[in-house]
């Protein structure tokens, strides 16, 4: 992780994290009819500098230590807090992105915002700049940890092998027309790659590509083999069958072109997007086919550019 | 929002992995075309669909979806539910239509998880 993409990661996270994710819940509140003297007791006991004033969950205003001091200084009679509180409080919705909160903190110079639910406008929490920073740091730490652990297993394996070329190879057989098992091979490949500690974005791309390829084997052929080869810098997948073959490869590669029968479409496939999907997920893809002989699909997923180019 | 919020908004019930009700849902999509889901969906989204075959669970697994909700009161067979449990993919079913379900979630702040051109 370079310093540059760490900054963009933070920027990304400010949009990703919601106010509700980082705010403090369990807010201490007072009712509008509570007396100022009681409010003073709460300030002292809870060591806080202010609280929202809430009536049946609805936010009526905010009362702060400043209001309390002013009331003390003026030596007035004890009264309900609603007469001294600030009304028309600026609030944030819990589902707003944190960046919205950051902007409002900057614009208005407030120390905290009351957070309400968008649906019923009821109070759900309170947020300070500190809460946002804490939330961001936590999230960064988790992401950083993920990245660390994700690269360790496979990397250390290849580091241990002293050779000019090293690779890990595994193979699967797929039975044609067996729809109950469709997706099982892709699932096993996905689990295996995860265990090897390949980055999740890469695993997802390989899983989607092999799933589409597996569906093609099941829909159109009598079955075939899927071979996976993990190298230090790339994953190669080869899918082979022995017929019937594709008469017009160029046509088959066009998005939306499909020869799938209706019953395949009813399963949510056969819309002519499979090979497109595979192309989208791989760094390189090659398709060779001889009618009557069979089809060979090769995919190459780079482990190096994968994380950077991944937009999914 | 969480899956539990989704359940309430859609008058839905959990049929698999109900213990994951606190899982976060920020994005969603509605589709019966699994290839489209595989092609365009971002990870961790909620899939609303009328399809109930095991391929829905497989698609959710491959694309790292957060949860699946079946519309119009549909329920998958036991085998599919078992598969979802094994893969830790929460599933719900709502009596509402696809249109109504998407509308309610969108109204309450859930955005699309399809990656289409702006």
Task: Write a short abstract of this structure.
With 312 residues, chain A is α+β, with helices and mostly antiparallel strands.
Structure, described:
The complex is a heterodimer of chains A (312) and B (118). Chain A has two domains: 3-135, CBS-domain (Roll), CATH 3.10.580.10; 161-309, 2-Layer Sandwich (Heat Shock Protein 90). In chain A, a hairpin with a 6-residue loop joins β4 (112-116) and β5 (123-128). In chain A, 30% of the residues are buried. In chain A, α7 runs antiparallel to α8 and α8 (200-220) runs antiparallel to α11. Chain A has helices at 3-16, 19-22, 36-46, 65-73, 98-108, 129-160, 184-195, 200-220, 249-252, 262-265, 274-281, 306-309; strands at 50-55, 58-64, 91-93, 112-116, 123-128, 168-175, 223-230, 234-241, 284-290, 294-302. Chain A is built from twelve helices and ten strands. Chain A starts with a helix and ends with a helix. Chain A is of the alpha+beta class. The model of chain A is unreliable at 306-312 (pLDDT under 50). With 118 residues, chain B is an alpha/beta fold. Chain B has a six-stranded mixed sheet with strand order 1-5-4-3-2-6, sandwiched between helices. Chain B has helices spanning 3-9, 34-40, 54-62, 78-86, 98-107, and strands at residues 13-16, 27-30, 46-49, 67-70, 91-93, 111-112. Chain B is globular. In chain B, 36% of the residues lie in helices and 18% in strands. Chain B has a single domain, classed as HprK N-terminal domain-like (Udp-n-acetylmuramoylalanyl-d-glutamate--2,6- Diaminopimelate Ligase, Chain: A, domain 1), CATH 3.40.1390.20. Chain A binds chain B through residues 18, 21, 95, 118-119, 179-180, 182-183, 186-187, 190, 200, 204, 207-208, 211-212, 267-271, 273-274, 276-277, 280, 311-312, and chain B through 1, 24, 26, 32-39, 41-43, 49, 51, 53-59, 61-64, 79, 87, 108-109, 115.
């Amino acid at each position: 992780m370079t310093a540059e993409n760490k900054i963009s990661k933070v920027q990304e996270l400010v949009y990703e994290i919601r106010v509700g994710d980082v705010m403090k819940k369990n807010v201490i509140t007072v009712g509008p009819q509570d007396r100022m003297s009681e409010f003073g007791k709460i300030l002292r006991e809870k060591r806080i500098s202010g609280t929202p004033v809430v009536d049946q969950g609805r936010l009526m205003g905010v009362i702060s230590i400043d209001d309390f001091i002013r009331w003390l200084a003026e030596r007035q009679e004890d009264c309900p807090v609603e007469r001294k509180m600030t009304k028309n409080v600026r609030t944030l919705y819990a589902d707003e992105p944190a960046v919205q909160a950051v902007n409002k903190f900057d614009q208005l110079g407030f120390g905290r915002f009351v957070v309400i639910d968008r649906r019923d406008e009821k109070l759900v929490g309170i947020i300070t700049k500190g809460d946002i920073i804490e939330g961001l740091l936590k999230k960064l730490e988790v992401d950083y940890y993920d990245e660390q652990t994700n690269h360790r297993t496979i990397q250390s394996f290849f580091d241990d092998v002293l050779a000019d070329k090293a690779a890990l190879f595994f193979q699967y057989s797929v039975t044609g027309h067996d729809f109950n098992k469709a997706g099982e091979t892709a699932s096993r490949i996905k689990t295996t790659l995860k265990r090897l500690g390949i980055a999740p974005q890469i695993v997802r791309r390989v899983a989607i590509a092999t799933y589409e390829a597996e569906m093609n084997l099941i829909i159109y052929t009598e079955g075939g083999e899927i071979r996976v080869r993990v190298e230090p810098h790339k994953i190669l997948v080869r899918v082979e069958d022995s017929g019937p073959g594709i008469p017009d490869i160029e046509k088959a590669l066009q998005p939306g072109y499909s020869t799938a029968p209706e019953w395949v479409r009813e399963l949510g496939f056969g819309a002519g997007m499979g090979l497109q999907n595979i192309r989208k997920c791989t760094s390189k893809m090659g398709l060779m086919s001889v009618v009557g002989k069979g089809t060979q699909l090769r995919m190459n997923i780079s482990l190096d550019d994968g994380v950077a180019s991944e937009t999914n | 929002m969480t899956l539990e919020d989704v359940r309430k908004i859609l008058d839905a019930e959990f049929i698999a992995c109900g213990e994951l009700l606190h899982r976060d849902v920020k994005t969603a999509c509605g589709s019966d075309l699994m290839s489209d889901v595989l092609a365009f969906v971002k990870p961790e989204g909620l899939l609303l669909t009328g399809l109930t075959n095991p391929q829905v669970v497989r698609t959710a697994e491959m694309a790292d979806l957060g949860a699946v909700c079946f519309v119009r009161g549909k329920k998958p067979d036991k085998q599919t539910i078992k598969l979802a449990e094994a893969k830790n993919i929460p599933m719900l079913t709502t009596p509402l239509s696809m249109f109504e379900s998407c509308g309610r979630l969108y109204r309450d702040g859930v955005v699309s998880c399809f990656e289409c051109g702006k």
